[in-house]
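Troubleshooting entry. Yesterday's outputs looked truncated, so today I'm pasting the complete records for two proteins to confirm everything comes through intact. If either block looks cut off, that's the bug. Protein one:
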Amino acid sequence: MAVESRAVRYFVAVAEERSFTRAAKRLGIAGPALSRAIRTLETELGVRLLERSTRVVELTEPGEVLLTHARPALEALDAAARRAVRASAPQRGLVLAVKADSDGGLLDALLAAVAADPDTGPVAVRLCGWREHTRLLRTGEADAALMFEPYDPGGIDADVVAVEPRVAALPADHPLAGAGRVRLADLGIAPADVLDRVEHDIGEHGVHDLAQLLALVGLGQAITVLPQSVAAQYPRRAVSYVPVEDCPPAALVIAWPEHSRSRGVAALVRAAAAVARSHGIGAASDDLSAPGVGSGRHLSR
């Protein structure tokens, strides 16, 4: 059964807005035209997707199923279109998504390593925010991403290229600030919370980024745990960084869209692993989260 992507986009807009009026405004079309398109889609599928009332629109069970699968399908379609356009561009290079303070200290060396590689070509850096890397990969706006775990793995392949210790960020006058090392229990942090700790702390304290969170740490209003290389980007007189002896290491990954067969991305993955090894933080075999780590698996060679 074939349905038009436009009708599915209309349905997703209504489902997300829970209103035909708001969805029509978002889509830039007339309300009656939107209603007709949804009715036609329901007729083609032979199911009722929406329960309509004067106040709100609710999804039926078939509607919930369609919404769940339609979002990634439309995202993949948009990504394919973007990649096709980018592939036709003269002197096309790769786009690498990176958060400015979360490259493991490898970005400059990585760019230098791939600059002369004919398989890679030019690499443009796309700076991004928290958890934005994988969205850029799925939408076709980036070819690869360098980021710390955790990340949303949907539609993504990745290799761990580096592992490094984590440190606690403590107020400089904290009783443990002068300690040679601390344990998670000393900080009141559960091991299961470590991966999401910074994002959790940013949300809990109502700040917008790591710099603001560390300002609170310096004021004695927070503590957090960071990868060692990230902490090195934020020296603060009022903040003391102390190794955490029982903290899981931070894993830096290089990721790419799961269906990519790009020789350039494969070369970039190999270069990232080599640069990490040269910095002494390359992923050892017992640090790997999946077979083939460091190899650029599934990519063309």
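Protein two, checking that the full record survives here as well:
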Amino acid sequence: MPAVNRVAIAGTGVAGLAAAIQLAKAGVDVDVFEAKPDLSALGSGISLQGNALRSLDALGVWDAVRAAGYAFDGLTLRAPGPDAPVVAQLPDVKSGGPQYPAGMGMPRPALAAILYAEAERAGAHIRCGSRVSGFTQTESGVHVHVDGESVGDYDLLIGADGLHSTIREAIGIDTKPQHTGMGIWRAFVSRPAEVERTELYYGGPVYIAGYTPTGDDSMYAILVGDAQEHFGASEDEARALMLEQTRAYGGPWESIRADLESGAKAHYTWFTQHLVAEPWNRGRVVIIGDAAHSCPPTIAQGAAQGLEDALVLTELLATRSEVDQSLWDEFHARRIPRARMVVEASVQLGQWQLEHNRDADAGGLIFSVSQKLAEPA
């Protein structure tokens, strides 16, 4: 018998939907509240490392994810210049195990739709346009309000409401995402046949230029540089800014530029980092995913770590008889050191770029972290 009978979840990102899927499959009554009016996912594409694929398999959605994404092994490094010469072909650590590819790219909206469908199939109740506006705790539960109205009593409230989590703030945690000094352009474009894995270019006008295939006919391209105030740019201005910064890169960038000139949208964000110190819960309210930690996408672990948060938490809730301190102690012991490792490594990789540190062993750090992530959370 699970430790909980009724759970409320704030947020429908990967962490929130993963928690909803696992709890509903365990027989728990789950209500998911999403402040946005629909489940449209922002952004272009997403990179999923092997440990993320292992987590998605645990949720029962691996077949759907595999069909919707583009699997690959290895990493190609190229140099700037008109011919974009290949510098190295590097193998990836299969951090999910030998039964999964080292990595996969897929459109973010496709992943969101797969998780949403699985959560509904499992029996979770999802309400969009519904913001958790307040709650009061007792020793044994949480009384939740949504949009100012009472929605009842729950055994647990899970705050999976993202970087700017209102649940995090409401339980008195003042840790917030901090900018790292770097920003990223992203664009969703067509995939040239020659692009079969992630390819990265180091140097040139930006720190990192690259792209990842997300399907037979699609990929997303990135440019990583110093943080700039590009948030007020119009769509045409954003495309022009991204185009200008790609001029030093040849090869498949010719195709990317053609798509941008034809109207592909360019999206800009800043890198952030934070890690909430133990505990992530206050009584019967707990935060997971981006609400608890964030990091630059330098090793593509944001979604993976949110998925692992959800799987560890729901495993404990489904196998323990009560929500007590020993449950929280095990949850924090299994999650915080791992999340800290990922955050610190991701930030370090970016910092080396900001410092123009050519002697840093970026490959060694990535390989070391990947080996550790190969061990299940």
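Both blocks look complete. Sanity check on protein two: The chain has a mean pLDDT of 94.
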